[in-house]
Structures are given as C-alpha cells and as structure tokens.
Amino acid sequence: MECPVCHNDMNTKSIKHFQEWKGHYVVFENVPAIVCSTCNETLLTGNIVDKINQTLWSMPKTSRKEEVDVYELTTS
Ligand SMILES: [Zn+2]
Question: 3-43: per-residue pLDDT in tens?
Fold first, then answer.
C-alpha cells in the first residue's frame, strides 16, 4: 500500500493507539495498523476502528491503568 502523504511503502505493524474518550485518554495496545516506514503516517482499517469503538462502548474492565503525563504548550 502507498502512503497518502509521501507515497512511499506502508507496512502492517502492531501499534499503540491513543484515543480520547469521555474527557480522558485510553490506550489500545497491539492494534494492527498500516504504518508508513518513511513519515510514520498511520492508518487504521475500518474494521479495526469498529472494534475500537465497540470496545469503548461496551466498557469492559481495562487491562491495567497507566498514568499519562500532560504538558500544556505555551506559544507566547
Ligand atoms: Zn509516508
């Protein structure tokens, strides 16, 4: 598959996917994604997106909790 950004080759990789959900972040691990080896553009296929959404809506017990560091970017 060709990257829509830089037109180089993309490979299937297992990634960490971050998603905002009801005001906080959730992390999905071992997500199969298509990743560009050059610019790191990441694409999720439709059925993976569906699976993520289904998981969020069914709200199963999470595997574990991790703290997330938050930085506020000041541009002044
Ligand atoms: Zn690319």
Answer: 999 999 999 999 999 998 888 889 999 999 999 999 999 99
**Domain-located, residue 16:** yes
Counting the structural domains of the chain, the total is: 1
Distance 61 CA to ligand 1 centre (A): 35
Distance 23 CA to ligand 1 centre (A): 30
Sign of the alpha-carbon dihedral angle for 58, 23, 33, 64: negative
- Cα(53)–Cα(69) distance, integer angstroms: 24
Q: Can you give the pTM of this predicted structure?
A: 0.74
Is 47 part of any domain?
yes
